[in-house]
Specification:
The chain is of the alpha+beta class. 29% of the residues lie in helices and 26% in strands. The chain has one domain: Peptide deformylase (Peptide Deformylase). The strands form two sheets. A five-stranded antiparallel β-sheet has the order 1-2-3-6-7. The protein has a two-stranded antiparallel sheet with strand order 4-5.
């Protein structure tokens, strides 16, 4: 199965809002499989279709310690959120950058599974953070946009410098 190239911040394609999946067919199941493999290989605990330049509402997550609890969420929607937590986040599109972000402590998300059934997941802790981080990607938002403008400028400059060195 192919590993998918991951877009790197500040690539403008990361700003593209994703559209709902209209038809849950084999091409979506194949994309979900390839995204899961790319996430495990990276390694990461989540990946949004936006990050692999596919602008559809699809995310994969495995925030388990055993790395055997894959969640595939098609057309995820936040239906409830409450509380506040600050968690250190990273992002496969922003390599080497980690910072604390304010997120809801508890979320409830409704989505379709790969067989088209509506499911609901209630989460807190790291899984809740990861769900919010990945759903941000689907809206074209990268976690560094939760940080101060000064931090964002520094991160952009650092990553652009790195990309010139490796080009
Ligand atoms: O969206 C992404 O780029 C994936 C990102 C998700 C995430 C991490 C931390 C907090 C919120 C959301 C990552 O997976 S970055 C890599 C990472 O944190 C990690 C990798 C392997 C094991 C454990 C964590
Ligand atoms: Zn990310």
């Amino acid at each position: 199965m192919p590993l998918l190239p991951i877009l790197r911040f500040p690539d403008p394609r990361l700003k593209t809002p994703a559209v709902p999946v209209e038809k849950l067919d084999d091409s979506i199941r194949r994309l979900a499989r390839d995204m899961a493999e790319t996430m495990y290989e990276a390694p990461g605990i989540g990946l949004a279709a936006t990050q692999v330049d596919v602008h559809k509402r699809l995310i994969v997550i495995d925030a388990s310690e055993t790395r055997d609890q894959l969640l595939v969420l098609v057309n995820p929607e936040l239906v409830e959120s409450d509380g506040v937590q600050f968690c250190e986040e990273g992002c496969l599109s922003v390599p080497g950058i980690y910072d604390k972000v304010e997120r809801a402590e508890h979320v409830v998300v409704r989505y379709l599974d790969l067989s088209g059934q509506t499911q609901t997941i209630a989460a807190d802790g790291l899984l809740a953070v990861c769900l919010q981080h990945e759903m941000d990607h689907l809206q074209g938002k990268v976690f560094v946009e939760h940080l101060s403008l000064l931090k964002q400028m520094r991160i952009k400059a650092k990553l652009l410098k790195q990309s010139r060195i490796t080009a």
